[in-house]
Amino acid sequence: MERWESSVEKAIREAQERGEFDNLPGAGKPLPPINPNDPDWFVKQLATREQLDFTGALPPAIALRKEAAGFPESLRELRTEESVRQVLIDFNRRVREDRLRPGEGQLPRILAPTVDVEALVEQWRVLRVAARREATADVRQDDGIPTTVPDASGWFRRWVGRRRPGRGGWPRRPGT
Length: 176
Fold this sequence. Notes:
Blueprint: H1 7-18, H2 41-50, H3 60-69, H4 81-100, H5 117-141, H6 155-162
Helix pairs in contact: 3-4, 4-5
């Protein structure tokens, strides 16, 4: 007796025979567990899978605390002491503005602490010195060959400047 097969089942069977379901991502792995008591399981899995950053959705005080926890490492890429000071002063300004906002509901108010600008500037200096040492150590490890092209403006410009006519360099042509 021949088994009746719907068109969908037939299409799936034919695709399996062609091998279209082989080597799919996650093949042979169990499905991730789902907590039936967690109403936000889908959002959490989506955020993990897509590597979404929800810091913009945090309350301002918690976002400020998270930002402060990243100091002084987050300041490492800044080049000047003045720019570091500006970032830290702006951070303290935002903390003070957040403290002036009225509290919401019956919950206790969360406050973000201000940062000590001078202490963080000093830590930034130490990080910059360490970064410079790492950079010079990298050049030494590469047989002393720097990765940047040297500036040819020094000796070459002096040499070319001496060789110009009328400056005692090239001899003048007769009649000039």
